[in-house]
Amino acid sequence: MNRKEMELNSVEVWDGNTCNAQAFRQASVDVVAAYPITPSTNTVENYATFHANGYVDGEFIMVESEHAAMSACVGAAAAGGRVATATSSQGCALMVEVLYQCAGMRLPAVLCLVNRALAAPLNVNGDHSDMYLTRDAGWIQLDSFNAQEAYDLTLMSFKIGEHKDVRLPVISNQDGFLTSHTAQTVRPLPDKVAYDFIGDYVQVNAMLDFSKPVTHGVQTEHDWHFEHKAKQHAALQGALPIVEEIFKEFKKLTGREYNLVETHKMDDAEVAIVCLGTTYETATIAADELREQGIKAGVIAPRLFRPFPLVQLAQKLQNVKALACMDRSAPGGTVGALYNEVAGALFNTPARPVLRNLIYGLGGRDITVNELKEIFTDLQNDAKNGKLTGKIQRLHGVRGPELSFYEL
Amino acid sequence: MSKSIKEMGWDELVPGAALFSFNANVDYLMAETQPEDRIYAETNSKNAYVGDWRVFKPVWNSELCIDCQNCWLFCPDTAIISRNKEMVGVDYDHCKGCGICVEVCPTNPKSLLMFNEIEKNEDALTKWPEKKKKGEEE
Ligand code: SF4
Ligand code: SF4
Prior knowledge:
Chain A: This is 2-ketoisovalerate ferredoxin oxidoreductase. The structure holds 2 protein chains of 2 kinds. Chain A is of the alpha/beta class.
């Protein structure tokens, strides 16, 4: 490595974007191609500063759009390098075409997606629309609930994606502004420890290997397109135990524990909230306060949005009587995606809780502890009655008359 | 690859939509080896016949050709065969019949002309036009 070491304190005050940039630096990424977009701009801006100051020995490519950024990453990854970039919202939408290419070509790139709403109307604040947009692109998707987790998961993204049995790109999600712009205490690893944890990049079928030339991203039509997609699906599904293994390895190194499904007081929970992102932490506070009143409340969140840990999630919900699935993305004419996933996970299991779908927090609207306590109270009614006491879906916190198109 | 790719199951494919051009590692200098001497893999496009599109084909008249290499340079399908800077002929397995080679041929009359696909090349060669005088319409 031909770069300056960075002295880090055992505890740093970093926001989520700094966490991403530091993880890129420590992973010794060969190529970062980036186009800035709020709220992920600071990820690549910080990285560019590290580069300018000699703390990075890779290439930093300034491109003319997010489509070009991901294309450059795909090119560099196909050529045989470790690559990473960051984006949000509209930029992510512009990248989508190339996201599918990257996953189909089985290139283990890392994308830090700082979640933000999609226009119109234009809005730079956080929700999960861009995460949902990339749902079927074939990328592994990890979700962090705070800055420390953003750092840890971005580091682990490299190790997960590059694992020889995975070879898939990874998105490391975090909530726009709530995580990306809020400075929190973060415990980083020393550079060498972080790099050794990830390991050297081992390239497979590199385009620039002249002794074994390879064409990437070929046309296959019906001849074997289906088989390729099957292989991709198998690799995604097969990634779950590998992710678990890497989580365990990380715990051994740092003491910090990650699970395929994160739970808070779920062992005996009768009512529960399932959510993604920072809402998890807010919901744990609401659950704790309700526990003091004797209400058996719990919170549960998949750590991965893709591959979705269906079995692991269903197992943890067999004793729950009523469950609220919280979707932070405009539902677009149906129930929220998370609700769909959870319902899909539960439908063929013996015990199924009553399910509600709450669409909330779009475009950065806050969700407070008190609101979450109210949601728990609704769930208690459902649990007591053994059936839904309201509508299946509700747009929580929208101004005007209550809105739901879906009730039985 | 022992099995034909069309018989392979999803679990036997190489991960990623990647194709290998050559069967084994290449231990010769690619640039100095003629295409016919390279060891292609089944998946190499060299082995695929893609001439079905053609309605008109280019026919080459060696008597008139000055080996300028224009046709070789401009053919979008690398379907002009040239060796040591000498025009050899047309690779009809890969030529799509676009006519660009004819368009760029500088001789008078042209050394490449488009004929109906069903026309025999030896018949086509008997129908070659005369040299055009200055100012005459093409
Ligand atoms: S007709 Fe087109 S494809 Fe065929 S040899 Fe000429 S330039 Fe190439
Ligand atoms: S362009 Fe015409 S003259 Fe030139 S090499 Fe081709 S056929 Fe011959």
